Amino acid sequence: MEGLTKLLAIRASLNLGLSTELKSEFAHIIPITRPLVPQTKTFDPYWLVGFTSAEGCFLIDVYKAQTKLGEAVKLVFQLTQHSRDEELMNKLVEYFGCGSVHINDNILNYRVKKFSDLTDKIIPIFQKYPILGVKAQDYKDFCEVANIMKEKGHLTIEGLNQIKKIKAGMNKGR
Questions:
Q1: Measured between alpha carbons, how far is 23 from 20 in angstroms, rounded to an integer?
Q2: Which of 21, 115, 162, 167 could pair with 60 as two cysteines, CB 3.0-4.6 Å apart?
Q3: Where are the domains of the chain?
Q4: The CATH fold of domain 45-173
Q5: Distance CA 102, CA 98 (A)
């Protein structure tokens, strides 16, 4: 029982804590105190790549807009964490020199939307320190769309259709 109590105290301190059912069954559980980890101004690039692989998204947004084609394309790099990690998320803004942190309920999102920041700051890091695993495929697609946009291909119907096809094959569409 002692081991179970320790495990539940750890679980109670993570993310959303214990479920309502567990709280009612184990009302005596006190969440452990999580130590504060001091954040540095720089990040190990390999840690950053692994963090992105676990908590990041390379998003392609095709949306209705008042353009010649009636649609536009926006790229977004995003990292997501619980609100208790606000210091970490703000350090990402400093580290990359771009982007912003947004909060929604208890969720923090670090987002970079500016095209030049994506092509000049974000993409080069992942070119130098490649992502491994399934997220690498999404990053490759993201870069392909960025290249199409650099060449102004997103302003043509052919280019827009090519971007839509790439987007449809990303993430769960693979």
A1: 5
A2: 167
A3: 1-35, 45-173
A4: Endonuclease I-creI (3.10.28)
A5: 13
Q: Phi, psi at residue 71, to the nearest 5°? A: -145, 160
Is there a contact between 63 and 72 (Cβ–Cβ < 8 Å)? yes
Query: Can you give the pLDDT at residue 41?
Result: 64
Mean pLDDT value across residues 19-34: 86
Q: Which helix (H) or strand (E) holds 146?
A: helix 135-150
pLDDT value at residue 23: 86
Whether 83 has a pLDDT exceeding 90, the answer reads no
More confident residue, 84 or 166: 166
Rounded distance between C-alpha atoms, residue 98 and residue 78, angstroms: 12
Query: What is the pTM assigned to this prediction?
Result: 0.78
CA-to-CA distance for 38 and 135, rounded, in angstroms? Answer: 28
Strands, E assignment, 21-141 = 56-64, 71-82, 100-104, 107-112
Buried b (16+ CB within 10 A) or exposed e, 7-29: ebbebbeeeeebeeeeeeeeeeb
Collapse the DSSP code of 10 into the 3-class scheme (helix H, G, I; strand E, B; otherwise coil) and give the result. helix
Q: Which amino acid is it at 1?
A: M
Q: Where are the alpha helices (DSSP H) in 58-130?
A: 86-96, 115-117, 123-128
Q: Is 159 in contact with 148 (CB distance < 8 Å)?
A: yes
* Mean pLDDT within 108-118: 97
Whose tokens are 């998003």? That residue is: 59
